[in-house]
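ingest -> validate -> predict -> emit
validate: passed (alphabet ok, no gaps, 376 aa)
predict: started
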Amino acid sequence: MSIYLDNSATTPLCKSAKKKMLDVLDNCWANPSSIHHLGVIAKDELDDARKIIASKIFCREDEVYFTSGGTESNNIAIFGAVEKLSRRGNKIITTAVEHPSVENPIKSLENKGFNVVRLPVGENGSINIQDLIREVDEKTILVSVMLVNNELGSINPVELIKKAVMMKKSPALIHCDAVQAFGKMPLKVEKLGVDLMSISSHKIHGPKGAGALYIRKGVNIVSPVYGGGQEKGVRSGTESMPALCGFGAAAEDLNNIEKTFENVKGLRDRLVKSLEQIDGVEINSKNENLPYIVNFSVMGIPSQPMINYLSEREIYVSGGSACAKGHRSGTLVAVGLSVDRIDSAIRVSLSRYNTEEEIDILCENIENALKELRKV
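emit:
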């Protein structure tokens, strides 16, 4: 029995997405920019996918721009916003725990002379909005804060950022990396108050190589991607029809997000309760965090041997972000965990397909691993 518990890294393809992709590969392979009949059919399919994505984040269809994934969406948003507003200031505000696809673009801008402020996080992994209010000023041109942290599941108060920006009369655009939030909690862009928001397909049981960037109507950014002008010039390049239509099908499958949230919360609570009964296990994620992600440490057992032990038994977890392989987690450092606790951290990330039986088998094997690996 294979048990997959690394859904924050990627998710298995759902049946709806696979079916749609096969149909597009066979029957809708034309370029959606072509003006002949087959091109028009392809464009209609692409527009349908865009309409579905827009409905899931409660925005206009013309505010959704397709990309190759969360990384490209984040890069376009960050570089595009800064290029557009660079004459009005040079200050960028972000957090100390952003995903590398946000942190690294901002670091490159910092190396070019931009003033970057990284807000600290509390022990739960989220920022204090008062810290942001103190830092925002008339020279701030970009605020980029993730909604859900990919290692701890902590949720940031993104909906309060717009008020802070307006209060300080700042020209800043607000960008949110919502890759780990999309499909797992209700998202309404107007309520969040963001100007730019990144989402990804392969985190919601869609294919890899597809994502989207929400750009609020009236917001103009200078795209760093040049080419044939697809996606209204925001992301040039022939659209990947199978991937994007599969993305739309996976998004359409996101029915009753609130009910799924409660089901996953039940699995999280079952997991945490079992782990707390195992001697030497420390829970790093807080109860108020998104239940889809549970980070814990098995003290005395480094992450890699534990991951290997579980993998040999067809149980698949991770030691943190799959994008930071081989590096000590900056997120866990930022929340103040000890080196021993960081080096033994395990991340379990759940999906709507996981079961109570799988949770019980995981915990049983962690207990067994403790006995066997500590002898070694």
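The chain has a mean pLDDT of 96.
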